[in-house]
Amino acid sequence: MNFVAFPTKGERKRPRIVANAAELLWERSFNGVSVDEIGSAAGINKATVYRYFADKGELALASARDHDIRTLEEMFEHSFRQH
To answer: Is the pTM of this model over 0.85?
Structure first.
């Protein structure tokens, strides 16, 4: 029997926080957005954001890393399709 592992609530929250942070940071800049606003956009409170990230700087780095990883994946997919 095969079991499918579904992501836990925590595993679903972190990517949602990062995605919303990336969007707001892009639109408003680092100093133009608060952790409270990021949490609100993700549908959670500020305390929950701090459960996953020590501060806004760590969250900004996570969103930048996520963006870099997606960009690299897209580049590799594109180059493999050409060959």
So the answer is: no
